[in-house]
Design goal:
alpha/beta; 2 domains; five-stranded parallel β-sheet; 10 helices
Length: 221
């Protein structure tokens, strides 16, 4: 889950990123010619440093310029990152200088923040939950005290640098009601989850909004 993967791999071999972005932007240009107005979002994984993301954003821009020359028109896209390692969360203000959006990769953020691998967590996490060390399995429901605080910090710092930054999460936590409630509390724009969890996620999102609506009205009053 760590090591030479994500943006580290494409930093060393940018042609991997180039061919993927080229396919996305050519497809976007093709449907744009049919009257659709797409706006692709290119999400760079495992970023921990602003300059990692800057290098990838420059590659995306270079490919976008190539597609513009080919098709005679510009296809805009957003470039953002997955917040999935603690350094990205605590350095979010710096990373937001380059990122158009953050998407919290809470599966890996849980692994890296807690130092727990999903590969063998089943050997001890059930006992931890049973004995109250964790209230719930942190891979099923976001650990509010640890991972939740990293997310809150990243949201605050990211918005401080870029007030309009788009924020969301992706992964299985996006279908967990308590995790969705945390996302609403943090003011995230969206959650993403597996298709079979979408009905539960939509219901939980609606309930999270309704729980906070009276409080919001009181603040306005």
């Amino acid at each position: 889950m760590l090591g030479l993967r994500g943006c580290r791999l494409t930093y060393l071999a940018p042609e991997i990123l180039e061919v993927q972005v080229l396919a996305i932007l050519r497809a976007a240009a093709a449907v744009r010619a049919e009257g659709v107005r797409p706006r692709p979002e290119i999400m760079i994984p495992l970023v921990g440093h602003r300059e990692e993301l800057r290098a990838h954003a420059e590659t995306v821009q270079r490919v976008a310029d190539q597609v513009r020359r080919e098709r005679g028109r510009r296809t805009d896209c957003l470039v953002g990152t997955m917040i999935e390692i603690p350094r990205a969360a605590v350095c979010a203000a710096s990373i937001a200088e380059v990122a158009d959006f953050f998407s919290f990769g809470t599966n890996d953020l849980t692994q890296t923040a807690l130092g727990i691998s999903r590969d063998d967590s089943g050997l001890f996490l059930p006992a931890y939950v049973e004995h109250g060390i964790y209230e719930r399995d942190p891979f099923a429901s976001i650990d509010r005290e640890g991972v939740g605080r990293l997310m809150a910090w990243a949201c605050e710092e990211g918005r401080r640098t870029r007030p309009e930054i788009k924020l969301g999460i992706c992964g299985e936590h996006g279908g967990d009601p308590p995790s969705i409630d945390l996302c609403e509390e943090l003011g995230l724009d969206y959650v993403s989850c597996s298709p079979f969890r979408i009905p539960v996620a939509r219901l939980a999102a609606a309930q999270a909004v309704l729980r906070r609506r009276p409080a919001k009205r009181r603040r306005r009053a």
